[in-house]
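Example 9 (inverse folding). The structure is encoded as follows.
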């Protein structure tokens, strides 16, 4: 079921995710063109496999769930904290991931991404405490969410695509 286009989409997606992680860690930005490239690679993958791994409705629902969940979290967080709590790039990233994963696996990606973000934040807070011996207020702590969610997308993609008979070379 996999042809050369679908096989090329997988390393393209991995490369885009890696670049997005590096950029988000450096400048706290997920460029739209790269997120769009990830979404287009997902769409090309599914078209080239004749939607074998998910129908059009499932993939659209996955994109909606990925973006919608984070957008709702952003609205609530912004309301309570009166500041930007989650960037729109993170929301777009999960929409693109939903196009790859569908509704079930995007939920796994959201959970794994949130856990990865908590671990990342805990490590950074621990490093800061070790170097300064002071614990700053948690309410002012900030880190880019994209790397955590990208890690969640990778975990969910492995869960979805692991052991596929069509990937045997």
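The amino acid assigned to each position is listed next.
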């Amino acid at each position: 079921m996999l042809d050369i286009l679908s096989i090329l989409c997988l390393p393209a997606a991995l490369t885009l995710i890696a670049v997005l992680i590096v950029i988000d860690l450096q400048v706290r930005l997920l460029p739209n063109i790269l997120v769009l490239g990830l979404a287009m690679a997902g769409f090309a993958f599914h078209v080239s496999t004749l939607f074998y791994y998910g129908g059009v409705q499932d993939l659209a629902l996955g994109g909606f769930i990925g973006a919608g969940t984070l957008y709702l979290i952003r609205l609530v967080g912004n309301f309570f904290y009166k500041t930007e709590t989650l960037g729109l790039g993170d929301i777009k990233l999960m929409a693109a991931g939903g196009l790859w994963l569908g509704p079930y696996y995007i939920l796994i990606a959201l959970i794994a991404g949130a856990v990865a973000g908590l671990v990342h934040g805990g490590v950074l807070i621990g490093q800061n405490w070790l170097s300064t011996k002071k614990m700053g207020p948690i309410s002012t702590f900030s880190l880019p969410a994209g790397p955590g969610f990208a890690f969640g997308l990778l975990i969910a993609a492995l869960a979805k695509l692991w052991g596929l008979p069509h990937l045997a070379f």
